[in-house]
Amino acid sequence: MRQKADDPCEQSRQGAADLVRVEVLIPPAARDEVLALASRMRAEHRLTKELQSLLDNALRRYGPRILDNIDLDRLPDLLSRAAVAARAMIERGDAQAFAMGRKILDRVNARETATE
């Protein structure tokens, strides 16, 4: 009988479908350190995924209005693109764009503090 985890369709429906399971052999003394590292990596991944989703939604809703003369493709990473778009939304958008821009900036700040 096939296990559920072997079925790719079933894996995509699970909560951590974009993560992979890793098993390694380490000294017993390093166990807590490895678990803490894995926890930080999962938290960082969740924040990045949420930030990308917020940015995609914001650009879909407000892109042409807020990105006049702003080329996000020239920016090096997700954090800088999200920060620039959020500031543009705050400066040029309506009340909903302002609120969404603040939310994106909060996530950018949370992501920056998580990586420090």
What does this structure look like?
- There is one protein chain.
- With about 120 residues, the chain is mainly alpha-helical.
- The protein has a domain at about 55-115.
- It is built from four helices and no strands.
- The chain has helices spanning about 10-15, 30-65, 80-90, 95-115.
- α2 (about 30-65) crosses α3.
- The chain is elongated.
Main β-sheet, in a few words?
A: none
Helix content: 55-70%
Number of strands: 0
The 3D shape can be described as elongated
| Strand percent estimate | under 5%
Estimated radius of gyration: 19 Å
Contiguous uncertain segments of 5+ residues: none
Which structural class do the helices and strands define?
mainly alpha
Order of helices and strands: HHHH
Mean pLDDT: 86
Distance between the termini: 46 Å
Helix count equals: 4
Give a brief rundown of this model.
The chain is mainly alpha-helical and 116 residues long. It is built from 4 helices and no strands. Helix content is 67%, strand content 0%.
SSE blueprint and pairings:
Elements: H1 8-13, H2 31-66, H3 78-92, H4 95-115
Helix pairs in contact: 2-3, 2-4, 3-4
What distinguishing features does this structure have?
116 residues, 0% strand, single chain, 4 helices, 67% helix
